[in-house]
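Query structure, 426 tokens:
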């Protein structure tokens, strides 16, 4: 079978200009941190298969859990029905979150987890007849590709055709060391109007913006301001949760907590799609009424899918093992050291790391950012050298599965260095 030919005939790929992009790589097998192509060539899965695969491929513990679950119950409607795995998962996730963050709504992915969070927040104020109709977000944000998620995300190259259909959102400039205080002042002015229902942000790291990082100080201050002015705070931890930043949740680096948190990606170990939106008890209570219309009238066919819940519970078993955290800490330490070492390289504009995320921003002569020509050059170089790294424009980054060995991580660093060394002007 010529898979590429068949693919071209029948498949429409995400984020892909099919006219100009080369044929996709055909991956037929995967084990641990390695992807295996149809021709037998191997690639290290440096971005965890779109940032989801936290424990590596083919994890036996997750496989056993899926097998067991399949023989118990594969799927059921989740309105008017419940099942033990969803209850177990909801209980285990809320026990890992701060007190009172304990009402778990199930959906299918990161975007839907965000949609649900927005709807919870908007409807909470609506149910109370309070006219809080403004939403605050941060420039550069990415919260997903559904309309609500796009509305609270960065406007521009990805979503121009849809912009007339977005709802109004106020955006704060991205907080950098040089403007943090000014952004906070700006935020205070907006929030003290008490018109804001919602503040939504990716805590500490904006993923799709290019793994852009900001300070714990800013996060603490902004969230405190929002809470002072009765604004519901949503943390979109779709990318940052499950050990990515070196802690189970990114907000654990700070002294603040969200009112609603969105989880997905690594939640199931990256094996099956699942989204969770976890809200505080008082938000849930705001939907209790004798009027049915005050309920959260939202759901998906696969809400609470037992197979996905089983994978997520099995993934949480793995997070309960000390060995997993030893691996996370080892990857984080190596990242930090490499980030410092590479920061002075002539081809590097900036390098940064937080936990298992390492990002290297390349110097480019043109101000092209996402559509930088260097992106394709880097992508192809890494493929030729056995790494699957999908740069975000001129930013190359790794966020690997935690089963990555020390030797594999060193190999990734060596290929990155050789790439930087042979770079000319772009
Ligand atoms: C922070 C954040 N939120 C939401 C999403 C959307 O998740 P999904 O692609 O599963 O819809 C992403 C995806 O990259 C993300 O990084």
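Result returned for the query:
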């Amino acid at each position: 079978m010529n898979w590429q030919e068949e693919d071209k005939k029948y498949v429409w790929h995400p984020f892909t200009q099919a006219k100009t992009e080369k044929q996709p790589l055909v991956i037929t097998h995967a084990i641990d941190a390695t992807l295996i192509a149809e021709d037998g060539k191997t690639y290290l899965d440096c971005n965890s298969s779109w940032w989801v695969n936290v424990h590596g491929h083919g994890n036996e513990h997750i496989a056993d859990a899926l097998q067991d679950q399949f023989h118990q119950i594969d799927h059921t409607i989740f309105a008017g029905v419940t099942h033990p795995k969803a209850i177990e998962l909801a209980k285990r996730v809320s026990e890992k979150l701060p007190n009172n963050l304990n009402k778990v709504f199930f959906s299918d992915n990161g975007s839907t987890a965000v949609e649900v969070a927005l709807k919870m927040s908007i409807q909470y104020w609506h149910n109370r007849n309070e006219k809080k109709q403004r939403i605050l977000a941060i420039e550069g944000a990415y919260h997903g590709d559904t309309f609500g998620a796009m509305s609270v995300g960065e406007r521009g190259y990805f979503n121009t055709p849809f912009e007339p259909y977005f709802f109004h959102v106020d955006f704060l400039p991205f907080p950098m060391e040089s403007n943090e205080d000014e952004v906070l002042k700006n935020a205070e002015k907006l929030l003290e109007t008490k018109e804001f229902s919602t503040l939504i942000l990716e805590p500490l790291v904006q993923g799709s913006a290019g793994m852009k990082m900001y300070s714990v100080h800013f996060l603490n201050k902004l969230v405190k301001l929002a809470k002072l002015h009765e604004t519901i705070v949503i943390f979109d931890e779709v990318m940052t949760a499950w050990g990515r930043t070196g802690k189970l949740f990114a907000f654990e680096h700070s002294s603040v907590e969200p009112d609603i948190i969105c989880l997905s990606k690594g939640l199931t170990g990256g094996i099956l799609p699942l989204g969770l939106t976890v809200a505080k008890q008082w938000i849930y209570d705001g939907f209790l009424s004798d009027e049915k219309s005050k309920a959260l009238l939202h759901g998906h066919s696969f809400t609470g899918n037992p197979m996905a819940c089983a994978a997520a519970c099995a993934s949480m078993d793995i997070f309960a093992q000390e060995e997993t955290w030893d691996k996370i800490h080892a990857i984080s330490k190596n990242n930090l050291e490499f980030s410092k070492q590479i920061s002075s390289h002539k081809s590097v504009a900036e390098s940064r790391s937080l936990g298992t995320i390492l990002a290297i921003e390349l110097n480019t002569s043109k101000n092209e950012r996402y559509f930088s020509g260097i992106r394709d050059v880097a992508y192809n170089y890494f493929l030729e050298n056995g790494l699957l790294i999908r740069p975000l424009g001129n930013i190359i980054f790794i966020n690997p599965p935690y089963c990555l060995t020390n030797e594999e991580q060193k190999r990734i660093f060596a290929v990155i260095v050789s790439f930087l060394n042979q770079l000319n002007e772009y």
